[in-house]
Amino acid sequence: MMTSYGKTARVRYRGTLADGTVFDSTEGKEPLEFVVGSGEVIHGFDEAVASMEVGESRHVVMPACDAFGERIEEKVELAPMYAIPNAKDIEVGRLFYFVTEEGLRFPAKVLEVREGMARVDFNHPLAGKELAFDIELVGERE
């Protein structure tokens, strides 16, 4: 029987980029648990699991629009260094996390620092990339 929206799925997975680089995996960890259809995981992953049966394994390739979205140039902004928390610890090219007043964390990357200003990319690091997943649905519950 296929899993359905609203059930909690337990999955093992391995996510790779087009060149075969592994960007995420449950290998050596507990399976990932999430409520199918809740938006806790990217759309393409959610849809793949929703059409699987417990014990089934599947290889899924998803375009950027079903993963972390397309890269949006408008999400690259110029910001004064004084407005960036812990700016002294930031390294150009390295991922760091901004925290909103509500406590939400989101990734960003400083592309360049010049004359007290930083060019910051707020796109998700995997935005614009096609992703492949090997997924195994190992269990589910209400």
From TrEMBL:
Subcellular location: Cytoplasm
Catalyzed reactions per annotation: [protein]-peptidylproline (omega=180) = [protein]-peptidylproline (omega=0)
Record keywords: Chaperone, Cytoplasm, Isomerase, Rotamase
Pfam families: FKBP_C
Keyword Ribosomal protein appears in the UniProt entry: no
Gene Ontology, cellular component aspect: cytoplasm
Occurrences of domain PPIase FKBP-type (ranges): 6-85
Organism domain of life: Bacteria
Protein family membership: Belongs to the FKBP-type PPIase family.
Protein name: Peptidyl-prolyl cis-trans isomerase
Organism this protein belongs to: Gordonibacter urolithinfaciens
